Amino acid sequence: MAPSAVPREIIQSPSDYPGVESKAVATSHQNGSPQIDSSERIDKSLGEFRCLIADLTEQFKGGHPGGAMGMAAIGVSLWKYVMKYSPENPNFFNRDRFVLSNGHTCLFQYSFLHLTGYKNMTLDQLKSYHSSRIDSICPGHPEIEHDGIEVTTGPLGQGVANAVGLAMATKHLGATYNKPGFPLVSNMTYCMIGDACLQEGVALESIQLAGHWKLNNLVIMYDNNQVTCDGSVDLCNTEDVNAKMRACGWDVIDIEDGCFDVEGIIAALVKAKANKERPTFINVRTVIGIGSKVQGDAKAHGAAFGVEGVADIKRKFGMDPEQHFSISEDTYEFFRDGKSKGRQIETEWNDLVQKYATEYPNEHSEFQKRVRGEMTEDWSKLIPAKSEFPTTPTPSRKSAGLVCNPIAAEMQSMMVGTADLSPSVNMIWKGKVDFQNPDLRTTCGINGDYSGRYIHWGIREHAMASISNGLAAFNKGTILPVTSTFFMFYIYAAPGVRMGALQHLQCIHIATHDSIGTGEDGPTHQPIALPALYRAMPNLLYIRPCDSEEVAGAFISALQAKNTPSIISLSRQNLEQYPAYSSRDGVQKGAYVFIEEENADVTLIGVGAEMIFAVRTRDVLREKFGIRARVVSFPCQRIFDAQPIEYKRDVLRYRSNAPRVAIEAYAVNGWERYADAGYSMSTFGHSLPGAAAYKYFGFDENKIAPKVAELVEEVKKDGIEALRGEFRDLNEGPR
Amino acid sequence: MAPSAVPREIIQSPSDYPGVESKAVATSHQNGSPQIDSSERIDKSLGEFRCLIADLTEQFKGGHPGGAMGMAAIGVSLWKYVMKYSPENPNFFNRDRFVLSNGHTCLFQYSFLHLTGYKNMTLDQLKSYHSSRIDSICPGHPEIEHDGIEVTTGPLGQGVANAVGLAMATKHLGATYNKPGFPLVSNMTYCMIGDACLQEGVALESIQLAGHWKLNNLVIMYDNNQVTCDGSVDLCNTEDVNAKMRACGWDVIDIEDGCFDVEGIIAALVKAKANKERPTFINVRTVIGIGSKVQGDAKAHGAAFGVEGVADIKRKFGMDPEQHFSISEDTYEFFRDGKSKGRQIETEWNDLVQKYATEYPNEHSEFQKRVRGEMTEDWSKLIPAKSEFPTTPTPSRKSAGLVCNPIAAEMQSMMVGTADLSPSVNMIWKGKVDFQNPDLRTTCGINGDYSGRYIHWGIREHAMASISNGLAAFNKGTILPVTSTFFMFYIYAAPGVRMGALQHLQCIHIATHDSIGTGEDGPTHQPIALPALYRAMPNLLYIRPCDSEEVAGAFISALQAKNTPSIISLSRQNLEQYPAYSSRDGVQKGAYVFIEEENADVTLIGVGAEMIFAVRTRDVLREKFGIRARVVSFPCQRIFDAQPIEYKRDVLRYRSNAPRVAIEAYAVNGWERYADAGYSMSTFGHSLPGAAAYKYFGFDENKIAPKVAELVEEVKKDGIEALRGEFRDLNEGPR
């Protein structure tokens, strides 16, 4: 896209900055439009802010100064004039949410948190950016753990999705608890993006959804500096972004001089907040590294300016080149009302909640639970007893419905969605209402409204996971997102699933069709390597239950993991049920003895949909080879790893002479920790009916048993030591 | 989006179908517009085609009939009237490419391949769809291995990206080899999509790029049936798709009655082919499962119709319900000219190439190499000798530039791109020219044209990988794509990388900043679990070299792997160089002895950027603990696994009493196969300068050595057997 305006030249005296005229000094809110301070005062803050950024990147010769400097006027507009927040209570429930999707410009946010008085964000802390200080709260990208940061960003596009989730949460909670005169949940979500976020697919998916849902409480501010690492954005993007956003159902406002036109930005933000119909995209033309000799150039993006460069910037902004990290008392004073305004906003809200408590005591009681992040129902009572499950072969995706549907029906905090696989994933409960813009009832005959808790994500797995992170991040425990699609397509969602794990956000991912047993859809749909990613991922539970009882156990684990997302991996096809062996409590230990055998010659590890091969191989070994095998069920490696060593030794018989064989139709990688041999997959799958696919790849007890018998023979002959460090792949593959 | 036209009712007599008027029977091409057959003849073929699809899904009670039936008129327009192809030579170089991005409708493509006479696609083969037949060439989604299939599709959105790559390939080869009067490479690419492909981020990224590059040889045909698994598309998408496509730089043509209006579809396709400016999006309004009782409903999407349902469809189309898989001789005859037209097209092209050989002998010689998929240069001579590498610490991303830049400069088949990280990944060679639409020279001052071989992908990792699959799939070996970004962001690209591995497409992925040593960018940018995915992925080489010499080895492996994509995993930070130990030949074996020690007490496995900790730990063990350690370098597990057992035993000393410790700052998962203990990461990373990050997580020889010494002591005391099956995690994590 061609620049919409030539950036104005930086000139010597800050009072000469064009685009901002003198205004009254008062900043009280009138009719939603804040009164704006004098241009001198604003310009001074902009100049000092930009020099501070230059100093902070210069000290350790690194970081991302250019974007933060270019966006200064946007920051002043937000933190000084528009956003509702409370520096003394960063987690104030009804605060406006701010997401920095272009997270590498984090100094932008940190510096405004400092100026507006967030307690921990001292100047000393700002200086810890890019330092070796372990106690730094100024990491290279914003992290959710720190006050004033709503979500961890950095991987581009994620923040857009998170912001959509945050805005959904407001809409949903508002529709659920607000009453006439009681706008309990009414905050805005502001998302700052750079050029990159308009290129990443996850953002493009999320933008579609926000337009579809008419999230009018969402504002994207586009730092349109037309520069990325490689240079001009024209190198790789020349679309008409405004037209595209309109086509996606957004309103668009242009700001020509985004480096200085605070008044214009404020007006746009006020208009966006007043928009009753659509989300707003504010296209703000800025200049990267404004005031530096490399302004407008990719060189301003990701490197410090050098000592002379910084001095030059300071001279441009009328500041003393010898002064470093210098914020005047005037500028601190300028931002000081952030705290008092925050206290006032909080008081007003608390009063509102008090009155609500009187008028709507039941709703208030539930609302308070939500605010505290407590679940509204005791889910443990809602999970079926083992005796309630079918005993005939059942797909575990069906079992998951039996377990999850009653919880979803009752538990108001659960929002369940699917990437267009409602008929396959069984997550619809009786009486579910869709999360939708209620206008669709008239325009398209779609039944739903914002209070609905069933989400049609469309065929957008990545957005599904990343927006769900935003839902979960709104307020810890207030919303528990449940996503669903075929397991294979969690490879599309992987960047979002990972960000959820990194941020300690509870979310349950229902991953069906999790094996070659999926069948005819073929290798494109049959996961082989993906489990290795999720089993290795820190702070994630990948749980693969073998029958309905274990599915119950998987949900118990996932529901209890308040700071950890889970993937529950489920079959398309019918699975044998093992009421005599399977145990939900066993799942809580990651692995457990499924079928004991005192003087076993071998331990077979069965997992999920392939448990049947372990159990049947045991039978064949006994009947045809006179070999005694015990069976261990192993639904979750991460949970097992956390068990006491004694338990682990007991289950796996670490020092016995009986070898252990893991049987699973995935790549074996990682099982080597628990087994001496594996019967697994070393290639991609094949398009065949499920049972035929298993057979084709050698998953057949009559093929497995002889291989295990050979191994047992070898151990008897050469001793168990022969297996140390020489893991055996027993499956010879398709024949 | 609201339907643009109410679908016309299916009526009893096929000759009454509206929308197609009788035309002359001749089908010869005039002025680019084919003459069209009589409506009776066309309607008969449409009806028979639709009944065939219904029969094929009914026989095994499964599959996806609805889309294929709805798209029949599009297929007739393409295969009968518009597309250039040769059934007797499916790999004819200048054929038009057809990509079925909505791959679940594969019966659509299979059936047209059958009707137009692709040798292997017999009626018997069509009937193998969803059967247990191992020899089936009709898998549940199209697979590249079979004649007439350009790329494997199924995971939605991928096909759009692949089609963009195929169209790029044509543009690039045309710009490189075509001469006035010699349009050697001039084919079109047609991509069929469903509603889902307009939701998946990878498609949205690719659509942006195609518009940016003005790929006027690319046509997307949108099977706009407004139905997905969950029901109406309105559930999750209400954007103005035409306006969006125009904003992305595409021309748009609407077809109101896509079920029957063959004439209109042909006219649109002809217009698209004549478009000199932009890619074309043909928005074809269709009715899913047309002719069935569930037409227009999600029920027609992914299930057979039942015996009565099929009979009913046949009655609707005037066919005998008792006849199954019935194609009349008339209809076979209708498509029979496909072969003769194909022979003619081939002959004309071969003649053209012959004349070209005379006029441009040098270009012809190179062109022939490209057609045969041979590399244009002997790359092995272009790789620097060990002695040419720096001996001082060097980032391996820099070493990769030293190795790859000279090859890229010379080898015309190599197309190198980056997801906006040109300054970081070092893949620019002197004199590189960008792949760009040359118009940008005047409009934006961007230097490049279609003959350029350097690709600015923008911040679109997923599209980068998936479009690269299309580049590689154009003709085996003709183009070797090289992609690049930070390793962490290959998690965005993972679905594309996987599809490349599944399709045996050679592609080299340059993954820099591959460790916690990346530093300040923090945990969002520091990979921990991702290597586990790529090490487990079939047919993929994940290679992590430790210094420049090993980088050379990694490229040798990757360049030799003609049927396998590779990821070369590289450091941001300086790495020690080991000219005395490191070996490019060693890399070809996956792992090799780096520092031998005859009576070693322990084997340390060093990998990539963390080799330094293995080497230094060896020193500390000797100096402070009197322990003799040998060091193995282990750049690629998959290559090592393919070595003879004797070699593996030799390198890892399988049966010695010396334990093996893998040292790597990733999740340890998978190393258990090769080691008895690991010094690794069990959490996400931390934002600290690289060296400080390593230290924070215990990567420090003075912390590692005592842990290894303890292990050695234990083994001396309890014997090596004590370690069997009880893998030790030696790193206690951050302290």
Give structural notes.
- 2 copies of one chain form a homodimer.
- With 735 residues, the first copy, chain A, is α/β, with parallel strands linked by helices.
- Chain A folds into 3 domains: 64-302 and 335-345, Rossmann fold (3-Layer(aba) Sandwich); 379-575, Rossmann fold; 589-729, 3-Layer(aba) Sandwich (Rossmann fold), CATH 3.40.50.920.
- In chain A, strands 14-11-15-16-18-17 form a 6-stranded parallel beta sheet, sandwiched between helices.
- The first copy, chain A, is elongated.
- Chain A has 26 helices and 25 strands.
- In chain A, 38% of the residues lie in helices and 13% in strands.
- The interface between A and B is large, with 137 and 137 residues.
Helices and strands, with pairings:
The structure is a homodimer of 735-residue chains.
Chain A: E1 29-30, E2 33-34, H1 39-59, H2 66-70, H3 72-82, E3 97-100, H4 106-115, H5 123-126, H6 158-177, E4 189-193, H7 201-212, E5 218-224, E6 227-228, E7 231-232, H8 241-247, E8 251-255, H9 262-274, E9 280-285, H10 306-316, H11 329-335, H12 337-359, H13 361-372, E10 394-395, H14 396-410, E11 414-418, H15 422-425, E12 434-435, H16 439-444, E13 448-449, E14 454-456, H17 461-473, E15 480-486, H18 494-502, E16 508-512, H19 530-536, E17 541-543, H20 548-560, E18 566-569, E19 574-575, H21 584-587, E20 592-595, E21 602-606, H22 611-625, E22 629-633, H23 637-641, H24 645-652, E23 660-663, E24 677-679, H25 690-696, H26 701-718, E25 728-729
Parallel strand pairs in A: 3-4, 4-5, 5-9, 8-9, 11-14, 11-15, 12-13, 15-16, 16-18, 17-18, 21-22, 21-23, 23-24, 24-25
Antiparallel strand pairs in A: 1-2, 6-7, 10-19, 20-22
Helix pairs in contact in A: 1-10, 3-9, 6-7, 6-17, 7-17, 12-13, 14-20, 17-18, 22-26
